[in-house]
Amino acid sequence: MSFIFLGYFLGYCFCLSNYDIILQPWKLPFTWQIATVISVILPIVASLLYFYWSRNDWKTHPIAVRVGHHGDSWQSIAAQIDVEFRRIDKFQTGPPGRRVIVTDSWVLQTSAYTLDIAQQEDVHLNTLESQNFNYTDESPVGVQFISLKVLSVNQNISPFVIRINATEYSDFKAKLRTPIINVRNVIIQETLTERFSEAFREQVISNGVYRLTAGSEAPVSCIGCMQVQANIKLTKRCDEDNGGDCVSCNCRPMWCLTCMSKWFASRQNQDSPQQWMAGKSPCPTCRSKFCMLDVRLVAIPQ
User: Fold this and answer.
1) What pTM was estimated for this model as a whole?
2) Which of 62, 187, 199, 299 would staple 209 via disulfide (CB 3.0–4.6 Å)?
């Protein structure tokens, strides 16, 4: 890359058949003089760096220095990493320009010019944040990325941050030999159903509440999980009173928000998750058809 500028300059002179530019560069305009100096200095600097890094069997190369912090010889450490990298059970993720790789003993992050490396027995991983994207080139239904900070007890290893797709979080965690500390209580949506449940919850909250009349019987425990009180009521809100496929449901509240979201997701086309939000589902109790706009939280009178 350092020779590109010089090659462009020489090619420019050759195409114009003006060799005086090469023989008498001091007659060029000032900007061209600067460009000429840079095109000559860059290959010289690159050659000096190559000579310096290649001494002592590349021991002074920045990547060799980072690898060498984990042992007496960077070649032996590189050989160990190479053996583990060749195994088919390693974890790897990320775009080609920034890969995250976890082997039996190492956590690595590669990029075009750098390599972050830490030994598993020396690291602590902290969850920093999660980022949600509605549309990506990887998935039409959005994706969540988890940022994790890798801290090593080896003082020569600087901390670095890796990003993991939430759907791969379980595989990543299974390959680690150290627990992940989530002191910030970052919510990790590992499956498509969990991501949909979060979107379902937000939509239901925006639908408003259904107020039970005074004297009404308090909802019983959710018949889906039997863990929390039922808090969902289906009332037709999406179309005109006598229009559309949705109908009013006369069932009393019997389901919680979490169970209803899972039921709704299970009744959709599993091959087209991008259409789940606009889909419809039968009531799990009476089979009356409803959509997400018909789902409301129950407000219990005091």
Assistant:
1) 0.62
2) 299
Please write the tens of the pLDDT for every residue from 98-108: 899 999 999 99
CB contact at 8 A, 290 and 281: yes
pLDDT surpassing 90 at residue 147 = yes
Cβ atoms within 10 Å of 17's Cβ, excluding its own: 6
pLDDT score of 243: 63
DSSP 10-28: HHHHHHHT-THHHH-GGGS
Residue 149 has pLDDT above 70, yes or no: yes
> What value does the mean pLDDT of the chain take?
83
Question: Which residues does 36 contact at the CB level (< 8 Å), separation at least 6?
Answer: 9, 25, 28
State the sign of the Cα–Cα–Cα–Cα dihedral 234, 237, 240, 243: negative
Three-state DSSP at 241 gives coil
Instruction: List the one residue out of 77, 80, 100, 104 whose CA is nearest residue 90.
Output: 104
Tens digits of residue pLDDT in 3-31: 666 676 667 666 766 555 566 666 666 77
- Token output for 16: 């114009």
Residue 136 is given by DSSP the state: -
| CA angle centred on 146, ends 140 and 147, rounded to 5° | 135
Helix axes 192-206, 257-266, angle to 10 degrees: 120
| Residue 45, pLDDT above cutoff 90 | no
Cα distance between residue 80 and residue 87, in whole Å: 12
Cα 207 to Cα 251: distance, rounded to the nearest angstrom: 19
258: phi then psi, degrees, rounded to nearest 5: -65, -45
- Tokens 């462009």 belong to residue: 8
